[in-house]
């Protein structure tokens, strides 16, 4: 973080609402937003597309270094198989180092940035001006994902989604390098029984307080 840049770090497990919250915050303050999950997804997709293995760290690192942050497309990268492959390559330290370097460069853009992911407050931007840890129970997160799929007119199996959410949590929280956990100085937002709008209001008052203190 430079003196001119105000960085907001948002971490949490899959489907906790951090993407929606991050985009709202970035819009509100006119800050640049990076969904860092997309960088892991883009690396995984490039490996899959090229027919390369998902378990070769040197190959995955090389591909990770070629990821262009400007070209990340949420619609293309949101596929379930890509998320699954992303969480497999995200356990590799060399892949993480490559992507974290790019994420840190992004975080210094003026006038401010919002980065969301799993390790932003703990590893990528430990000096962020404000940190949030957004969570919700696995049941609530699985239900949200299920409703979202049904809302698109598609069919889904709730139990399979629930199992998937739990498996992804285990992998993200249990890995040795940069496991998902709240930073000591993160504000906790549990959206199990709170709408994303209410979470946004809560986040906004915290950010406004820090901004006015820094002014
Ligand atoms: O958030 P999203 O589901 O798009 O992330 C895909 C995967 O990328 C996650 O399951 C996680 O393993 C990994 N990831 C990570 N660190 C981040 C962002 C995502 O390890 N900062």
TrEMBL record:
Alphabetically ordered keywords of this record: ATP-binding, Cytoplasm, Kinase, Nucleotide-binding, Transferase
The organism of origin for this protein: Rhizobium leguminosarum bv. viciae
Catalysis: reaction(s): CMP + ATP = CDP + ADP; dCMP + ATP = dCDP + ADP
Binding site for ATP: 12-20
InterPro entries: Cytidylate_kin, Cytidylate_kinase_dom, P-loop_NTPase
Every Cytidylate kinase domain range: 8-200
Protein name: Cytidylate kinase
Family named by the database record: Belongs to the cytidylate kinase family. Type 1 subfamily.
Annotated CDD domains: CMPK
Protein's cellular compartments: Cytoplasm
Pfam families given in the database record: Cytidylate_kin (PF02224)
GO annotation, biological process: pyrimidine nucleotide metabolic process
GO cellular component: cytoplasm
SUPFAM superfamilies assigned to the protein according to its UniProt record, in alphabetical order: P-loop containing nucleoside triphosphate hydrolases
Gene3D superfamilies: P-loop containing nucleotide triphosphate hydrolases
GO molecular function: ATP binding; dCMP kinase activity
Enzyme Commission number, as recorded: 2.7.4.25
């Amino acid at each position: 973080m430079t003196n001119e840049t105000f960085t907001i770090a948002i971490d949490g497990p899959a489907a906790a609402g951090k993407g929606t919250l991050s985009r709202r915050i970035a819009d509100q303050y006119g800050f640049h937003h990076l969904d860092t999950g997309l960088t892991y997804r883009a690396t995984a997709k490039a490996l899959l597309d090229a027919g390369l293995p998902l378990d070769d760290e040197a190959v995955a690192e090389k591909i990770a270094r070629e990821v262009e942050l400007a070209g990340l497309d949420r619609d293309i990268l949101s596929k379930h198989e890509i998320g699954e492959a992303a969480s497999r390559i995200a356990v590799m330290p060399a892949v993480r180092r490559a992507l974290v370097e790019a994420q840190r460069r992004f975080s210094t853009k003026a006038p401010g940035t919002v980065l969301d992911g799993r390790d932003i407050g703990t590893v990528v931007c430990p000096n962020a001006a404000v940190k949030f840890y957004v969570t919700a129970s696995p049941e609530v997160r699985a239900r949200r994902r299920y409703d979202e799929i049904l809302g698109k007119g598609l069919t889904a199996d709730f139990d399979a989604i629930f199992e998937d959410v739990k498996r992804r949590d285990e992998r993200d929280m249990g890995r040795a390098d940069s496991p998902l956990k709240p930073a000591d100085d993160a504000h906790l937002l549990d959206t199990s029984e709170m709408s994303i709008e209410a979470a946004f209001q809560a986040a906004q008052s915290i950010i406004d307080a820090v901004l006015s203190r820094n002014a």
